[in-house]
Automatic annotation (TrEMBL):
Family: Belongs to the short-chain dehydrogenases/reductases (SDR) family.
Entry GO MF terms: oxidoreductase activity
SUPFAM superfamilies named among the record's database cross-references: NAD(P)-binding Rossmann-fold domains
The name this protein goes by in its record: Oxidoreductase
Ketoreductase domain mapped to chain residues: 6-180
Keyword DNA damage carried by entry: no
NCBIfam families, A to Z: PRK06179.1
UniProt xrefs under PANTHER family: SHORT CHAIN DEHYDROGENASE (PTHR43976), SHORT-CHAIN DEHYDROGENASE_REDUCTASE FAMILY PROTEIN (PTHR43976:SF16)
Database matches in Pfam families: adh_short
Species of provenance: Streptomyces aquilus
InterPro entries for the chain: KR_dom (IPR057326), NAD(P)-bd_dom_sf (IPR036291), SDR_fam (IPR002347), SDR_oxidoreductase (IPR051911)
Amino acid sequence: MQTASPVALVTGASSGIGRAAALALVGAGFAVVGTSRNAANAKPIAGVTFLDLDVASDESVRSLVGEVIDRFGRIDVLVNNAGVGAVGAGEESSINQAKDVFDINVFGLMRMANAVLPQMRAQRSGRVVNVSSVLGLIPAPFMAVYAATKHAVEGYSESVDHELREHGVRMLLVEPAYTNTSFEASSMAPDSPLPVYAAQREVSRDVLATAVRNADAPAVVAKVIVAAATDSKPKLRYTAGPMARRVSLLRRIVPSRAFDQQIRKLNRLAG
């Protein structure tokens, strides 16, 4: 099934930002493939073909990308959106748990990029849009492992973008702040919880839940993803929503001591 429309592949498209991005890309004229761990259970979207994918599996990624190219003839945009949250003090996550989070948020993104880039280079066009976070720019107490994955995505994406430009391909970053999704409810709890952190961990969960409840709708981020996918002169970084823009600006211009104090205040940390 070849198509004259540009083809976008969106990971983690069954809910939240991924679902909103799939909808918005259909509206922008793309033929969209959305992925989910169990595509049969995904609520249908007109114009979106849902396929199974586990970004933590090399074989699943290879199979999925091969199937999309066989069915649609090409991939013009990859939106790396699939991810998992993790809440708890850094000391409370075992190395194995941290590896699991990295395997999805970082190595899953790399697997997907490595799978689509040969075809994009061959056609001398394409964009990989990586959904990062402002937590890739700032510290995140009691979300240290998650923040570490987003910092990794930032460094990887900016570096690879330099490698790809001469081949007609770009790797771009979309940086939301908190978004009104099920992120908090579905985030991993620490597998090695310690009593010394218990009270502050619950405070931090409350801070996160409140932030998510009052956050931008996924459609706000989806609009920015479409811009990254379609701008004639794309930027490396796209902040998504007013809070993300403020955080990004303040990180650059506020003195480090003042910024540190603000982080502690926002996270209700003593001292």
